[in-house]
């Protein structure tokens, strides 16, 4: 007798290969949680093999590809995908979506890090963290894990006044923001965010970016380590807005990081709400 779960999987797989009614942009990405619930029951390898044979994909199938791209035994490669239409600018970076975790061993003592290691906020209460050589002792900053040396993309929700940064592990940890703040030296790159106002800083050089009242509090970062490219985006309600790119040569693995002023917070975004965070 055919297992009823497998029957549902087959039905779900058939739906992945259909365009939903009224869909005009076949490759738009949506976070379709009902689809994800059904995906969790699928035979991953069987579905991967099926997906890799297809020439065109719809939005649900694209989401599924993002979930499956690191699955063991999957034959999926970029070269095997022939998208029916071009992805919106920045959306293709989702293929390199990288789960991250806030590293509490690096957190300034007034930065509260959630148990999930996804959310941090600058509070008035000392968090009484144990001593650690990686901790920022006087600057309200922290880093994430893992270090990155390939292509990676991540998104973060922010509120208040924050810096979204990328840094070498060797960045200075001792001293106040004027000494070890992200972007002040050659070892880090920073995007400052505050109420629609943005600026980028590297090696002490700050560049103000155009003001926008339509951009919400979510930023995105894309890194291509080998190509030496780092790009910052602001995410509006419709599509990513490219803010600035740095080009150069990276000599060490890159660690995402954040600086938060008092009352500010950041929260790492998952590709799906149900997705577990990266473990430090």
Automatic annotation (TrEMBL):
Q: Which domain of life is it from?
A: Eukaryota
- The residue ranges of the B30.2/SPRY domain are 80-277
Q: GO: which molecular function terms? A: zinc ion binding
Any idea what this protein is called? B30.2/SPRY domain-containing protein
Q: Which residues form a coiled coil?
A: none
Q: Which organism is it from?
A: Neogobius melanostomus (round goby)
Got a GO cellular component term for this one? cytoplasm
Recorded hits in Pfam families, A to Z, give: PRY, SPRY
Q: Which UniProt keywords apply?
A: Metal-binding, Zinc, Zinc-finger
Q: Which SMART domains match?
A: PRY
């Amino acid at each position: 007798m055919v297992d009823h779960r497998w029957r549902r999987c087959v039905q779900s797989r058939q739906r992945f290969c259909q365009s939903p009614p009224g869909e005009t942009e076949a490759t738009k990405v949506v976070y379709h949680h009902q689809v994800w619930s059904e995906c969790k029951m699928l035979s991953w390898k069987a579905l991967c093999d099926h997906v890799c044979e297809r020439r065109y994909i719809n939005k649900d199938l694209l989401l599924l590809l993002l979930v499956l791209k690191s699955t063991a035994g999957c034959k999926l490669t970029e070269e095997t995908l022939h998208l029916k239409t071009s992805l919106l600018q920045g959306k293709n970076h989702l293929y390199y979506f990288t789960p991250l975790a806030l590293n509490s061993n690096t957190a300034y003592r007034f930065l509260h890090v959630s148990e999930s290691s996804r959310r941090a906020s600058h509070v008035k209460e000392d968090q009484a963290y144990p001593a650690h050589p990686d901790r920022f002792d006087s600057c309200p900053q922290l880093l994430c894990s893992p270090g990155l040396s390939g292509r990676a993309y991540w998104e973060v929700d922010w509120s208040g006044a924050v810096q979204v940064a990328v840094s070498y592990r060797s960045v200075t940890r001792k001293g106040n923001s004027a000494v070890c703040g992200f972007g002040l030296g050659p070892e880090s790159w920073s995007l400052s965010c505050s109420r629609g106002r943005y600026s980028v800083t590297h090696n002490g050089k700050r560049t103000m970016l155009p003001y926008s009242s339509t951009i919400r509090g979510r930023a995105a970062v894309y890194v291509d380590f080998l190509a030496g490219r780092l790009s910052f985006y602001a995410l509006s309600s419709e599509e990513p807005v490219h803010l600035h790119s740095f080009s150069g040569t990276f000599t060490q693995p890159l660690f995402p990081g954040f600086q938060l002023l008092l009352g500010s917070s950041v929260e790492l975004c998952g590709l799906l709400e149900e997705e577990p965070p990266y473990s430090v």
